[in-house]
Amino acid sequence: MERGLDTLWRDFLSSGRPGDETQAEVRTTAFVNGVSLFAILIFLIFATLHQKLGLQHLARFQVASALLLASNLLLLRRFARPFLAAHIAVAIILAQVLTLFVDGGLANTGAFWLSIFPLAAFILTGRRSGWWWSGALAAIVLVLWQQQTVGAIALPYPPGTVPAMLATYLTSAFSVSIYDAMRNHGDIAFIRRLEGLIPLKTQLERETQQRRRTEQALEQATHYDPVTGLPNRMLFFDRLGQALKRVGIGEHCSVIALSPDHFVESSHPLGKLGSDALLTQIANRLRALGEPEYTVANWNESTFLILLEGLRGQGEAAQIAGRARTLLTAPFPIEGGHDLFMTASIGVALHPQDGDHAVGLAHSAMIAMEEVRKHGGDGIDFVQGGMSAEIAQRIVLESALHHAVKRGEFQLHYQPQVDGKTHHINGVEALLRWHTPEWGMVPPDHFIPISESTDLVLDIGHWVLEEATRQAKAWQTAGLPPLKMAVNLSARQFRREQHIAETVGTILDRINLPHGLLELEITEGAAMHNMEETIAILQQLNRLGVSVAIDDFGTGFSSLAYLKRFPVQALKIDKTFVQGIHRNERDAELIAGIISIAHQLGLKTVAEGVETPEQLDVLHRHDCDHIQGYLFSRPLPAENLTPLLGSHAFLPFATA
Question: How far apart are CA 347 and CA 256, in angstroms?
Fold first, then answer.
């Protein structure tokens, strides 16, 4: 097979071994390259001062440059640095050509070598760099000619011949460039015939591209999983090792091990192709974690590892583990139009607490994952000592919340609201409770803040609204006196759920509950988020006949200006103001002021958290409209509260 200059050049350089150089070899290479560039600098000084080298010195200079060129190329071949080798070679050739040009050359061949230089530059460095080097030489020749015309230097050519040499040189450069462009973009028979005679840069590029494709295919087969396309364990450990070296002060590195529960049993009926398709779906969802500093890898058929870099705290790893779990809880579409539901066992390890090297950190994460699997799966576990108890509890609760609605673990308790003077029940507030098989009753202050910080609160809030409305309708159907049902809307639900008024109206109409029996409670923070939008939503609710109360009044901005503008019907005074009113005169005066302002604006008041007769007495004196608290009743399940509503609507002080 015919081999061109470019092929030989490529093969010469590609036989090197990248990445094996020692410190001594690197210093040697730097020294030789420095000597080469120093030789070029010496030449430029000679050319500027126009010190004739003489035939003997010229030959020595050429031999020395050739030896430096060979030495550089051999060392650069050793380290497989073709880009650097090419440019150093062209630089030394440029020095030789200029030396020959300035001195007339050996046997007056300087002009010939001047015309040959573009060919060497384009072959060795490519089109763009070839033009850069060719232009550099042309500029130097032009400066030398200009200096000759003013008599500053003397060249071994008549003044009129240098422009002709320069024109020949530029013609040569353009010819090489035109050939290159035609070969890359044309389909001309002449070029095709030339290809067999002068296999220059285009053939080199084609063969280089083919080799690059082959290398990429080999890289893909060596370092990536053939089914999912994710990095395999070899590449994962390489990246993990590099990440551990990059960890800076105040940063953390984490490994998450994740395995779908009962994957073999779930995927076996799907067959090999269906199982691979399911793995690919799982991989694509984990890729959707979306951060460039995360590496998702395939450890084995159904176990995945996630490398997290640049973390600022332990909580970030926990949050990402929760996100990964959430991604896998959504149904997976499979062949036949069916959906497959899956859960996952997840283990989290942190550097350096759970391992100070790559193997130890990954091993710790998988041990934590296996602990989850031993206890039935569907959870997240952290290596002992690697995660604070508070963060661990938060993530475990958040993960469990994803399933609570589907599993029927939520229930509503109802706390009566009584008339401030007669103590007759005139309404109830629906309060969410969560009972799990694992932990029993979870305190509301443990899980409600978690739900409100995520979009989980949208589904939970919708369930609460439907369930409370359904219970109010059940009491009405049972012939009990009409009771206003108060339901809390979270700030996220109020802001994020589109057409909230339409949603409320649809639920009321479907359940057939009179709209006036529903009261929605929103916090000051939710109301103040976007004044104009809030006013529009409240007006829509009012047109439905639904009343609105400002919950926890006094804990937020508490501006009289917005109270005047908002179409609300009641204020709920937060229990923090009620607790000390019987002992602290200032608290009593504050309560009196809130009640007075509310009445002047035509609003009813509800005092929360009333627990003692002394507190109730103060509220009586200041004409508080409604009372809610343990003094009268704790929140009760519907079945426990119903007898109280049926026997009488008057509540004496609670005895327990």
Answer: 6
**What letter does residue 293 receive in the DSSP assignment?**
T
| Angle in degrees, CA 376, 381, 387, rounded to 5 | 165
Distance of alpha carbon 486 from alpha carbon 415, whole angstroms: 10
Q: How many residues are recorded in the chain?
A: 656
Closest CA to 257 of 142, 365, 398, 406: 365
- Contact yes or no for 618/454 (Cβ under 8 A): no
Q: Which CATH architecture has domain 410-647?
A: Alpha-Beta Barrel (3.20)
Q: What is the C-alpha to C-alpha distance for residues 544 and 567, in angstroms, rounded to an integer?
A: 13
**pLDDT exceeds cutoff 60 at 49:** no
Does residue 420 come out as left (phi exceeding 0), alpha (psi in the -120 to 50 range) or beta? alpha
Q: Report the candidate in 365, 331, 364, 363 with the shortest Cα–Cα distance to residue 345.
A: 365
CA–CA dist 654, 616 (Å, integer): 13
How far is it, in rounded angstroms, from Cα 644 to Cα 413? 14
Measured distance CA(435)–CA(440) in Å, rounded:
5
Strands 570-573 and 547-553: parallel
At residue 17, does pLDDT exceed 50?
A: no
Segments of the chain assigned to CATH 3.30.70.270: 226-404
Beta bridge partners of 129: none
Where is 295: in which H helix or E strand?
A: strand 294-300
Q: Give residues with Cβ within 8 angstroms of 329, minimum separation 6.
A: 341, 342, 343, 402, 403
Helix boundaries (H) for 268-344 = 271-287, 314-329
Contact indicator for 317, 236 with CB cutoff of 8 Å: no
- How many whole angstroms from its chain centre is CA 358? 23
Cβ neighbour number for residue 45 with a 10 Å cutoff: 9
Q: What is the pLDDT of residues 420-465, one digit of tens each?
A: 888 889 899 999 999 988 788 988 888 888 887 777 888 899 999 9
Residues of the chain within CATH 3.20.20.450 domain(s) are 410-647
Q: Contacts for 336-343 with beta carbons within 8 Å, 24 or more apart?
A: 340/266, 340/278, 342/260, 342/261, 342/263, 342/266, 343/260, 343/261, 343/377, 343/378
CATH homologous superfamily of 226-404 equals: Reverse transcriptase/Diguanylate cyclase domain (3.30.70.270)
Pairwise CA distance, residues 87 & 96, whole Å: 14
User: Residue by residue, what is the 3-state secondary structure of 197-255?
Assistant: HCCCHHHHHHHHHHHHHHHHHHHHHHHECCCCCCECHHHHHHHHHHHHHHCCCCCEEEE
DSSP string computed for 411-471: EEEEEEEEETTT-BEEEEEEEEEEEETTTEEEPHHHHHHHHHTSTHHHHHHHHHHHHHHHH
| Whether the predicted pLDDT of 561 surpasses 90 | no
Q: Is 535 helix (H, G, I), strand (E, B) or coil?
A: helix
DSSP label of 157: S
What confidence tens digit (pLDDT) does each residue in 230-273 have? 888 888 888 888 888 887 766 778 899 999 988 887 887 888 88
